[in-house]
Design a protein that fits this description.
Blueprint (H helix, E strand, L loop, with lengths): L1 E10 L2 E11 L4 E5 L6 H8 L7 E6 L4 H11 E4 L11 H11 L4 H10 L15 H13 L5 E5 L7 H18 L2 E6 L2 H7 L2 E6 L2 E6 L1 H8 L3 E7 L5 H5 L4 E4 L3 E2 L4 E7 L2 H14 L4 E8 L2 H9 L11
Parallel strand pairs: 3-7, 3-8, 5-6, 6-7
Antiparallel strand pairs: 1-2, 1-4, 8-9, 10-13, 10-14, 11-13, 12-13
The structure holds adenosine-5'-diphosphate (ADP) and magnesium ion.
Adenosine-5'-diphosphate binds next to strand 2 and helix 1.
Length: 314
């Protein structure tokens, strides 16, 4: 659907997008994850035809902005990082205005109004909408002409968790009903995880990781951690031959018993073997906790930066 090769964009001597390559297939939901200044907006705006690359190529369904602008406008639905509406137009009037650009019918406007769940607000001036309602309206505007590809630049930044979830639900419904292709930028790890099967991590104008969440985690983080407490001390050698263990921490005496942890490839595979081993040696398990390394850990490992602090409060 989208094919980007060797794409570069500079602002004076700052390289915002740096020799970037990316392909997105029809029906994929892709999250472009990165901190402020990573180059997400610059990349997305070049795909949208709003900025011109210094070098490199972008094709969408084989079309490019230079030769096929008209067709691409039909294909794409977009909402920008800052959505501006006309303050003194109502929700309904705003949809009608945009529908007139595409010569769409009133019944399409009504359909979208219901779809974004804003019928109750149809007479409200856009200036009086809440953040979540504005973003739903922006999504409605983007969807009016039934595009095949949706590009959303930080659609939920600054929204409260409820409004954010409402928008996610709409986007998930789109995928199911219309097999839409979506590229969305975000600095919320949870958004990337919840919405998109594919996560592309961008830093300093480059893609530094690309894959499904589990692919990323298994490529870039080493396994999962199992913390345990048992009722008696065990020679470390006894554990050493359990399959799937990458590393064993020293066993320490605690008030509860004897605690240790394993680094394992996969806790689901490892735990049955672990339980069997305990039974064989008649050791009683007192406490057990399995922790997965998450995308947040991964992001920090890769970029040395933290994603927005807001992510941790969700
Ligand atoms: N119009 C512009 N003029 C100068 N520098 C810009 C312009 N747009 C973006 N930049 C710079 O390019 C880099 C990437 O910006 P941007 O694409 O907006 O990143 P993101 O969307 O990931 O926050 C930043 O360092 C930003 O300051
Ligand atoms: Mg941006």
């Amino acid at each position: 659907m989208i094919k980007i090769t060797n794409l570069t964009k500079k602002f004076k001597d700052h390289i915002a997008v740096n020799a970037l390559n990316l392909e997105i297939a029809q029906g994929e939901y892709v999250a472009l994850l990165g901190v402020n200044g990573a180059g997400k907006t610059t990349l997305v705006e070049m795909i949208e035809g709003l900025q011109t690359p210094d070098s490199g190529n972008i094709t969408i369904q084989g079309l490019n902005w230079k030769d096929h602008a008209q067709q691409l406008r039909q294909l794409l639905g977009l909402s920008l990082q800052e959505t501006k509406f006309i303050d003194k137009l109502s929700v309904l009037e705003t949809l009608q205005l945009f529908a007139s650009f595409y010569r769409l019918t009133e019944s399409r406007v009504q359909e979208v109004l219901d779809w974004i769940n804003l019928r109750a607000k149809k007479a409200t001036y856009t200036v009086n909408l809440s953040g979540g309602q504005r973003q739903r309206l922006a999504l409605g505007v983007a969807l009016l002409h039934q595009p095949q590809l949706l590009l959303l630049d930080e659609p939920t930044t600054g929204l409260d968790p409820n409004s954010r979830r409402e928008l996610w639900e709409l986007l998930l419904r789109l995928k199911k009903q219309y097999n839409m292709t979506l590229l969305l930028t975000t600095h919320y790890m949870e958004e990337a995880e919840q919405l998109c099967e594919r996560i592309v991590i961008m830093d300093n104008g480059k893609i530094i990781a690309d894959g499904t969440l589990s692919q990323l985690l298994s490529t870039y983080t080493q396994g999962e951690i199992i913390d345990f407490t048992v009722n008696e001390w065990i020679l470390p050698e006894k554990w050493a031959n359990i399959t799937g263990v990458l590393q064993i921490s020293p066993i320490t005496k605690t008030p509860e018993g004897f605690a240790g942890s394993f680094l394992v490839e996969n806790s689901t595979n490892f735990l049955p073997t672990f339980f069997q081993h305990l039974e064989q040696h008649q050791i009683k398990l007192l406490q057990l906790q399995a922790r997965k390394k998450n995308l947040d850990d991964l992001f920090t490992t890769l970029t040395g930066k933290k994603l927005s602090a807001e992510t941790s409060t969700l």
